[in-house]
Amino acid sequence: MFVLLVSVFFVGLDRDPSFVPSPLIGKPAPEFSLPRLDDPQQTLSRQDLLGKTSLVNVWGTWCVGCRQEHETLLVLARDAGVRILGINWKDDSDSAREWLRTLGNPYAAVGVDQDGRVAINWGVYGAPETFLVGPDGTILYKHIAPMTLQVWEQEFLPRINAIQSSQTSTRQPSAAVSQ
Amino acid sequence: MIFRNWRFVILLVLIGISGLPGTSAIAMDVDPPLADPAQQEVYERLIHEVRCLVCQNQTIADSSAPLAADLRKEVRELAAAGRSGDEIKTFLLDRYGDFVLYRPRFTLETAFLWLAPGLLLLAGGLALGRIVRRRAALPVPPEDPVDDPPIV
Questions:
Q1: Residues B58-68: pLDDT tens digits?
Q2: A116: nearest CA in chain B?
Q3: What is the value of ipTM here, to two decimals?
Q4: Chain B residues within 8 A of A145 when measuring between CB atoms
Q5: Of the candidates A156, A154, A153, which has an alpha carbon nearest to the alpha carbon of residue A142?
Q6: Would an 8 Å CB–CB cutoff place A18 in contact with chain B?
Q7: Among positive and negative, which fits the CA dihedral A131, A26, B98, B67?
Q8: Judged by CB atoms within 8 Å, which residues 20-49 of A form the interface with B?
Q9: How far apart (Å, rounded) are the C-alpha atoms in residues B51 and B35?
Q10: Which helix (H) or strand (E) holds A87?
Q11: Looking at the DSSP assignment, which residues form a beta bridge with residue A144?
Q12: Cβ-contact A83, A47 below 8 angstroms
């Protein structure tokens, strides 16, 4: 009995109690339509996710982890050719534009979620969160914490390669990023 | 002596204050209650059952985190639209999973959580029963008169 308890607690030591598994994985990405950060007249919607594997990154200039992962996102967008769509969550749009101007812009497009409603539909509870969305609009994975190249290679790449090999397309699997 | 008493009085006052109900645990929304009292009841009941996922050990009623405010607003609007408590719970469960409810549903995944206390009690009871039966089967040791000298 004691040994059992010790082993239960020992396993528990290694787990992050703040991690909440998302019920959205394996489900179609929620519908949304947001004004774009660069041009509020245009919208970013679920439609823009389709056709190609994308990352959906929830960020804000108030979020320390987002600053940490920014370099990684730039590397992924630039060197690995990953399409990253941003959801600017409860942020000041001027600050957000300034952030992208000074730090560089890894996003193909950014939607502005001022009132946090889209974030709720996506089950977001803490930025940064990064979703992997397949070409058919299915959420394949979600990473809650700053993105790193290690996470990219261990969690995202295998899943991307899996869907690409299951399709009969001739597209090359994304290459691992070396730094 | 006077100085000591003075400190004692302050201590008493502080203890007294610490027992007063705090105002910090009240949600900071200033919205008037919903027109339909039944809907307001659904809203108030739910915000005390939904976990704030940023601060995890508070309900969204207690938390001042921005996400908690957003979730309160969402629940309020769903309640105002006439959705039932169960419908609103399903809405939240679809997005945030079982963890969002302080009283999770009974599913395959949460079965252990719900059943563990009963199972542990049962296991403890069985173990206790076995120990008692084993001890009862032991021969009674002869009484040692030296142990308990009579009290005069």
A1: 899 988 888 99
A2: B70
A3: 0.77
A4: none
A5: A156
A6: yes
A7: positive
A8: 20-24
A9: 26
A10: strand A83-89
A11: A129
A12: no
